[in-house]
Amino acid sequence: MSSEPTVKRSTFLKAAVGAGALLAAPGIAASAAASTRTAWSPSGASTARGPVAASAGAAGPSAVLTNKVADLTGPGLTDRFRMAATDLGIPVRTPDGRMLFMFGDTFENPVVGGGWWRSPVALWSTTTDLNGGVTWSGAVGGAAAQQLWDYPHDNPTFSTVLPSDVITIGGSMYLHAMVNKGLGNVVWTEIWRSDNSGANWYHTGAKFPSDLDGGLFQCLTWGEGNDGYVYVYSTGFQRNKPIILKRVRSNQLANPAAYEPWGWRDGAWNWGNPATPILTGSFGELCLRPLGGKWVLTWFNAGDYRIDGIIMDTPTSNLYTAYRQTLIYGGAWGQENDNHVAQLYGGYIIPGSTLSDLHLSVSQWKTDTGWPYRVMQFRTRNFG
């Protein structure tokens, strides 16, 4: 077994850039003028809901306030689970009321490639005061965090399986996972299910080809509405593609044929049309959640090297004119502060967050040394 992934994540993460430009970055994601940008339709006619060729967004009236709460993984924090080096930390509320955090490529020692390679693995938390920082109550698998299902890494078909997002529907949890042969090269994706708050997982039989929707249904995020549907935003796993939208009945999550695309056709958006990008850009990890009567999307904006957030009324809202803010900027090593983080990615909403007090799990990996490679918790106020 190889000690590290076939393709290094350094080809996948944007390198740290000069701190001067980053430290001068404004606290608002886009100018207010962007909210008046005219949309473009395939017919050439203006429409408030048609596809738009350039990214935009309605900025809020004041800058958000962001601070680091704590490191969540690393020596002294997760080495007791034999997982000192890990990333992602996708959080979800379990059916029994705890939180479960889902991690990607994980190693025993505090360095990428540092022995006992596993993915995905998961930790539980009973934390109720997010401001004090998330702490761990146990690992899936026992004293040491075990890979959620058995497979050999770097086998002839694929190298690793990475979590994309996890959702709780009633008494069951569903994990969408990407099967990769080298990072950024998705072979297929699939859905796993747990009926005991994450303790055991089994394959639902749902598999999606990597070229589905032109390769835009690989890395996804999902949230359950109050109308019986789960809404899904997805993109490619190359950090250079836009996002599309689908929906599926909550009780049909493991049925690939039940996913219904949202697309622009004959001058209008409708369900059942071929999927049309709903927002252009270079999207990395995604997190879509219903929150406080609204919907929130947070994501790693690879093109601009930062984590952004959008607040919308519904998943079908016009994302070009929706309220948008930059939550955390990329930064340079040795020049980090509360809202500038070197080689950041991820950015998942932690359960218990509110629109005005948002907590995120954020990953970081120093690619030239292999450490830090960890998950951190950040708090953002004044977002919504």
List its traits.
384 residues, mainly beta, Tachylectin-2, Chain A, 6-stranded mixed sheet, 5-stranded antiparallel sheet, 1 helix, 23 strands, 1% helix, globular, disordered N terminus, signal, DUF4185, TAT_signal
Which SSEs are present, and which pair or pack?
Blueprint: H1 19-23, E1 58-59, E2 65-71, E3 88-93, E4 99-103, E5 121-125, E6 138-139, E7 160-169, E8 172-180, E9 186-194, E10 202-209, E11 219-224, E12 229-235, E13 244-249, E14 260-265, E15 268-271, E16 283-291, E17 294-301, E18 306-312, E19 323-331, E20 340-342, E21 344-349, E22 357-365, E23 373-381
Parallel strand pairs: 1-19, 19-20
Antiparallel strand pairs: 2-23, 3-4, 4-5, 5-6, 7-8, 8-9, 9-10, 11-12, 12-13, 13-14, 14-15, 16-17, 17-18, 18-19, 21-22, 22-23
Describe what you observe in this structure.
The protein has 384 residues and is mainly beta. The protein has a single domain (9-72, 155-381), classed as Tachylectin-2, Chain A (5 Propeller). It contains one helix and 23 strands. The protein has one helix spanning 19-23; strands at residues 58-59, 65-71, 88-93, 99-103, 121-125, 138-139, 160-169, 172-180, 186-194, 202-209, 219-224, 229-235, 244-249, 260-265, 268-271, 283-291, 294-301, 306-312, 323-331, 340-342, 344-349, 357-365, 373-381. Strands 1, 16, 17, 18, 19 and 20 form a six-stranded mixed sheet that branches. Strands 11-12-13-14-15 form a five-stranded antiparallel sheet, with no helix packed on it. The longest helix is centred in the N-terminal third of the chain and has 5 residues, at 19-23. The protein is globular. The termini are far apart. The model is unreliable at 1-11 and 13-57 (pLDDT under 50).
